[in-house]
Fold this protein.
Amino acid sequence: MRWQGGRESENVEDRRGGGGFSMGGPLGGRGIPIGRGGLGIGGLAVVVVVSLLLGINPMDLLNGTVPVEQSRYEQSQAPRSNADDELGRFVSVVLADTEDTWNALFQQAGRNYQEPTLVLFSGAVDSGCGFAQAAMGPFYCPLDQKLYIDLSFYRDLRDRFRAPGDFAQAYVIAHEVGHHVQNLLGISDRVQQAQQRAGNRAEANALSVRLELQADCLAGLWANHANRERQIIEPGDVEEALTAASAIGDDRLQKQSRGTVAPDSFTHGSSAQRVRWFRTGLESGQMQACDTFSADRL
């Protein structure tokens, strides 16, 4: 991906290594609203995978009650490495690129785009949606309109999920920005209201899947416009993003973690669905093509 020398966003809040967070405390009863994109691209699937690897109860991660000695995401006060600094610059450039794209698209639609803030943190963070641990993966909080990411997730994306590459990393940011776009357009609120009216958990999960797949499509839409305007995509980049989308499909993660697949429990979509909708946004470049809620086939 061609990003070196690109404009860096002014909307990055760096909390890495700042301390002040207790890994042993609970979420304080607030938690992260799953129906509004709170668990983000890693989401519940990452919680399950990480808990199995650490030998702990997944509910402990969700409730924020994992003891410090059990978590591998402890805060570190060590000096930041050059690689960390470069990765921080990378996500800042990607965020700036999403700003350019969505500012232009919103302006074309006669609307103003409110740029989100991206928070870099280490280990755990206190967000507007509650206290969150890095094991939950990158997420977007609609209550403070901020994206949150512990950059160690990119190491997991490369090593555990076998999805390396800078464009795969950019896809993660673009997906969470997609949740911000949904929030600005009122889509997230409508989905949450529909989930509250749902007759059962399966119906609520199905709405979550459509929300997540739309965010994948919006990430592809960003890639389409960014490449059209700034030629950011290099050979192999699209394959990196598709590999990442496939690697974090609910079916693949459930199969890896427990050996079986339960479609009714999907919250983010299958590998094939995530790939299909990212590709839809990438190839069409049109907002209307990302209407997952009207689609007969996901």
Observations:
- Residues 12-290 form one domain.
- The longest helix spans residues 201-230.
- Residues 24 and 183 are 31 Å apart (CA to CA).
